[in-house]
Amino acid sequence: MGLRRAWQAIWVEETKASATGPLIAMQNPGRAVWSPRRFDAFAEEGYRRNVIAYRAVNQIARAVASVSWRAFRNRADGRRALETHPILSLLARPNPAMAQSEFIEAVTGYLLIAGNSFVEAVAAGGAVGAGTPRELWPLRPDRMKVIAGKTGLAQGYVYSLGGAERRWAADPVTGRSAILHLKTFHPLDDWYGLSPIEPAAAAIDQRNESDKWNMALLQNGARPSGALVYEPKGAAGGNLSDEQFARLKDEVAAQYSGARNAGRPLLLDGGLSWQEMSLSPKDMDFLESRHAASRDIALAFGVPPQLLGIPGDNTYSNYREARLALWEETVIPWLRHLRDEFNAWLAPQFDEEVTLDFDLDDAPALAPRREKVWARLQAADFLTLNEKRRAAGLGSVEGGDVMAARPLSGNSR
């Protein structure tokens, strides 16, 4: 059977899927696709053991979680804000163990660390697809696997823990499921996103190793490296035997090499002397290399180095400008990503006319931007009061649709 007929054999009719879907699905149709990356390693080395990445992830996730959410009903005559709605109640208390801020922080944190975040929607009685969701649960990305579908969309998801598995099916046409898979863009992976930790891995390893090296130096008296020189006494030169050389080499490699043995004092046999060879910390510019690695980590996450306490290369003139840049260039794009995914997956399960949006009015970091917007709206004499209020995200008021009369100039007739 030719390649074209093989594609046709796995194609699902009336799916309206991409023509490239069968190409993707042929890699592993109907089976769980394992992520090529180790989430536990990212979480351990890139989050738990690295203060810069830890602070960057927390700063972004907590900023995203601090924003309020609003619901709107979309109709032909415009969008109307809803004071109450079941979807807002669900977000306010996603599950018995979490409030809204903790839930959003967990979803965003997983997305930043793993490049993937999974949310389970549980309907009444715990049955999947048995009605509108009553609970939302964030799931650990390392336990979740995507099942490849025949059309290039996910066929389902499988959650593994302690030898047990839980599976969810996905619609082959729309891809909708009780599981929401949030992921970042990855140019080389069809099923999983790219973690910011991955491009920053070299800088994270450099920073972690420098921390280990510094600690080992402090514990071992801060003695620098050097060389062992064989100078036998009472002889006109000579060399170590092959056996002596091999024993000394193995001993140095096992007991004195690596970050954890940095600065450890040497025990020398007769005829051996220590000759210092290493450069001074000033010559190596060791501290600046640590700061450079820290700046690379901050760059990968989109956090201004000033906000993480990293000196040097201060792009923004003050802390206020740096916070505004963090929100405009990093936090708000992440909020848009969550909003769009929630509107595509969660909102239709309640009402096709309802959409979610985030409210930035309570964000102190955006106060300078709000002041500029309000000043421009106040000076716009070609807008009605209600048009100005809607542009500012406020509701209309009675009598606000009448254009105010403009004062006549001195030469008007």
Shape summary: flat
Compute the number of structural domains: 3
Strand content: 15-25%
- Helix percent band: 25-40%
Q: What series of H and E elements makes up the topology?
A: HHEHHEEHHEEEEEEHEHEHHHEHH
- Please compute the radius of gyration using only Cα atoms: 30 Å
Low-confidence stretches: 1-16, 407-413
In whole angstroms, how far apart are the ends? 86 Å
Number of distinct beta strands: 12
What strand order characterises the main sheet? 1-6-7-8
Which structural class best describes the helix and strand composition? Answer: alpha+beta
Please tell me the overall pLDDT.
78
Number of helices: 13
Largest sheet: 4 strands, antiparallel
Give me a quick take on this structure.
This protein is 39% helix and 16% strand. The chain has helices at residues 3-10, 21-25, 39-48, 51-65, 86-92, 100-114, 201-219, 242-255, 281-284, 286-301, 319-345, 367-379, 385-391, and strands at residues 32-33, 68-75, 78-82, 116-122, 135-139, 144-148, 154-161, 164-169, 179-183, 226-230, 272-276, 354-359.
Describe the structure.
With 413 residues, this protein is of the alpha+beta class. The chain folds into three domains: 196 residues, no CATH class; 53 residues; 44 residues, no CATH class. Helices cover 39% and strands 16% of the residues. It contains 13 helices and twelve strands. The strands form four sheets. It has a four-stranded antiparallel sheet with strand order 1-6-7-8, with no helix packed on it. α4 crosses α6. The longest helix is centred in the last third of the chain and has 27 residues. The radius of gyration is 30 Å and the shape is flat. The N terminus and C terminus are likely disordered.
